[in-house]
């Protein structure tokens, strides 16, 4: 039987756990809603229950399990801690130690555990089994309620010193722009994240509620919806071109809720890119649509497979 790893995907709305084999097949999985609690242990409890449930099927006499944890960020991979913006109860939460202790308790063997941010896991998943599986180097981008990303360079995750590299949502695309929640000015997210485009449209008199309605109205020709998407995708194009120019990467895989609207997003994005990606080595950069529904979970599995087995 091929080796299975434990993948843990922690998000603001749900926590998914699975045993995944080296072909990327999910053998056993469990999903729990992320509790809206202010207590760190209460938020961790359903994750622990899901891990126990999934490991009930794990052979008892196996060698040390390899575990990959993907979490909403920011993360601190050297410390093994996470402080997700959308999980207020967790500040410097020692998720690596907690999961390692739990897995050791259940299996009798201390596991090897890796941690990465959710944008990094998205990139790893799409690189392993999705839209980037034919390239050695790519950037994965999630455009949703935020804008996140991660880079796989020469088939390895480029994590950065703290595990937060390629934080594309918070690079400035407008040095004279308003102050972002992060403290910087004119960040990509301020224009390109779903709720930002919705708010901009509402300020211009649009009466819809969310990004899904906004993209639907843009598709139907609503001029306000189209205008704010133009602005958002121009900002995203500037951020992608900057990243491509810096990292010398040509393949960008874009996923997340907003991107699922399809051409109404991708057409303006590709058009604006022509104005920003202008140096010879980035003019032919390619924006692809993500294909996996569970790239984050599969990316956590890919992270686990990249860890050295315990000796
Ligand atoms: Zn910012």
Explain this structure:
With 311 residues, the chain is of the alpha/beta class. Helices cover 37% and strands 21% of the residues. The chain is built from nine helices and twelve strands. The protein has helices spanning 40-55, 95-107, 118-129, 189-192, 194-203, 211-219, 223-247, 263-276, 295-306, and strands spanning 4-10, 14-21, 26-33, 66-71, 75-76, 81-82, 112-117, 138-143, 147-153, 156-158, 251-255, 286-289. A hairpin with a 3-residue loop joins strand 8 and strand 9 (147-153). It is globular, with a radius of gyration of 20 Å. The chain binds zinc ion. Residues 170, 180, 182, 184, 187, 189 line the site of zinc ion. Zinc ion (ZN) binds at residues 170, 180, 182, 184, 187, 189.
Key phrases:
binds zinc ion; five-stranded mixed sheet; 21% strand; 9 helices
Decide which structural class fits the backbone: alpha/beta
Number of strand segments: 12
**Counting H and I runs of at least 4 residues, what is the number of helices?**
9
* Rg from Cα: 20 Å
Uncertain residue segments: none
Shape: globular
Q: Order of strands side by side in the largest beta sheet?
A: 3-2-1-4-7
Strand content: 15-25%
Bound molecules: zinc ion
Mean pLDDT: 95
Into which percent range does the helicity of residues fall? Answer: 25-40%
- Elements, N to C (H/E): EEEHEEEHEHEEEHHHHEHEH
What distance separates the N and C termini? 20 Å
Largest sheet: 5 strands, mixed
